[in-house]
């Protein structure tokens, strides 16, 4: 990759799950490089949802390298997810016609609830399925699936964890790491954010900032998707032998959904 920039540049891995991200430094200049990013990145840049895309180059082997400006900044802290800018940016993403058009051009189809349920059932480890809280979760997903059709599918990020929100020194907020982008019910993103970061009594206020009301339908859909996403995350951590995180998520299920039973 060095030949793209010249020998004066220092290129180091940026970490992350894929191992395809790098940091390039030369004197005071700094870029964030990624191998084989989706063309979706260009639209995200234009919409100012991610840091500015500087250039895109194709290598002789067919790989595509993208370079984004490196911004000094930090991840949001969990308590900062209540900030009105988070609600406004998520609403902007969910309402963006250019983002939706680009995902459709890239061949993304709607991620239906049945697809997510099939994903959960086929991936979830058999031993995990012996746990009572897992059994209750699966039973709820199967019994409720016919009642959660929203009729509105938008561009969803899929992992609105506080670590993916970047606040620059210039006070500009971004949502990064779009590898899991999908066309889905907006409750996929909203549910995860509310259940993980916002006390339930503050949900109506947060949703008002986002631009919608808390209805019975939305509440049910959020619960359904959060349960499904959590089960998938539990199994992902199990496969990575990250048992502390796995057990934390199992406790999350019990605490938020089944403690009163």
From TrEMBL:
Locate the Aminoglycoside phosphotransferase domain: which residues?
37-224
Highest taxon of source: Bacteria
Coiled coil regions, renumbered to chain: none
Q: Which InterPro entries match?
A: Aminoglycoside_PTrfase, CcrZ_PhaseVar_Mediator, Kinase-like_dom_sf
Q: What is the name listed in the Swiss-Prot or TrEMBL entry for this protein? A: Thiamine kinase-like enzyme
Q: Which organism is it from?
A: Bacillus chungangensis
Question: What high-level taxonomic lineage is stated for the organism?
Answer: Bacteria, Bacillati, Bacillota, Bacilli, Bacillales
